[in-house]
Each structure stands twice: as C-alpha cells, then as structure tokens.
Amino acid sequence: MRAHDYVPDITLCSNALRARQTLEGIAGRTDTGRVLFFDRLYSDDAAGYLSLIHGNGGTGSVLVIGHNPMMEDLATALAGDGEHAARSTLNAGFPTSGLAVIDFPQGLASAAPGGGFLEAFLTPSDL
Known about the structure:
The chain is of the alpha/beta class and 127 residues long. Helices cover 31% and strands 21% of the residues.
C-alpha cells in the first residue's frame, strides 16, 4: 500500500482475530488512518459492508478488512469498470490479503454496485 501511496483516511476492520492480525501487519508498514472495529464484518453480506462504508466512510478513502466471500462479492459488485489487468486478476478470485482499489468519481457517498472504477487489484504475489 505504501509503495503505491494508498493511504486510507479510515479503516473498517472486523473484530475477528485474523482480521486484527492483518491490520497489525499493515499498520506496521503504513498508515491506516482512524481504525474502527465491527463484529458485523464477520457476518454481514456485501450489502451490509456497503452500508458500513456509507455510514463510516465520510468523503475520503476507506480500507475494509473483512472476510470472503463478502470482500470478493463487494469488490466485484462495486467495480463496474476497470483497468483490464486488474479486472482479470479480480475475476480470478480474491485471495487473503488481496487489495482492490476502487475509485468512485462522485465520492464514497455515491458508492453503489457498478458505480466504481477498479484502479488496481494487488495480491501478495505482487510484492
């Protein structure tokens, strides 16, 4: 994230141990902004994740540390258009510690299925 200058204003993180460990790994290497923890990121579906983003994202950038299949469902639903290589990689699945960077031209408040642009999709193998 740091190498690509992806710095969130806020991080929404599941309270699950594995998600917290992922957050610790990221926080040790780059800024994560303000961090909020949610039990519901363990059980909500993609629509619930989007609701949390709308309710807590403000106008800046958001990092969501959650669980599959919800993360994959959310990224796939939101990234209507995107850079071809990123889209191809995302379509192959969302691995642990994958990072989908989705831009919303009208801001996070307008984030809706098909309304984003997939700027990048990074996986641990990209390091």
